[in-house]
Amino acid sequence: MRKLIFVICLITVSQLFSQDKFKFKSIDYGIGTYKINNEHSALVLISAFDVTTSYKSNLLTLSNTIGFGFGKDEQSYIDLEGFYEITVLYGREFSIAKQFTLETHAGLGFITQNNTTVQNENQSYAIPFKVKLLYYTNDHFALGFNPNVSFNKINTIYSLNLILHFKF
Q: What confidence tens digit (pLDDT) does each residue in 35-54 have?
């Protein structure tokens, strides 16, 4: 199912670019921390990679996120946990000040979660929301904060990333 969603996303993006209406806008790399709702996560790390296209004032983003870390299970034993999420997001960009920009995104995706105490993977569709607060140091590079939330039927995941934003 993950491969099917990924292939559909690639075909859609390639078709849009072949019509010369969309253009690459930016690439983002983020690293930060996350919290799984109702879990006792102690040390967790998240990494995200986004590719964003634009058409007029509309943004279309393909996002890949992976998170892993240590937590505690019901008996307070150390537990290794992790998740992988791929999403397609629609967003808008707002200029706050001369060098500050705010991007908001919402979309649909697919998430896989697992830990060492549960033998099988948990998979679900996800409804993610992202906000990017960017400070442009020049015309093509920005630093920013990226709070996220991913609602799914397994666990709600909250995250905060520091991002490097490369604009084309």
A: 876 556 667 899 999 999 99
Condensed to tens digits (0 to 9), the pLDDT of residues 141-165 reads: 999 999 999 999 988 889 999 999 9
Nearest CA to 101 among 165, 33, 21?
165
User: What type of residue sits at position 113?
Assistant: Q
Would strands 23-36 and 157-167 be described as parallel, antiparallel, or unpaired?
antiparallel
pTM given for the model: 0.80
- Residue 46 amino acid letter: I
**Integer distance in angstroms from the first to the last C-alpha of the chain?**
32
DSSP string computed for 110-166: EEEEEETTSSS-EEEEEEEEEEEEEEESSSSEEEEEEEEEEEESS--EEEEEEEEEE
* Closest by Cα among 103, 111, 145, 115 to 128: 111
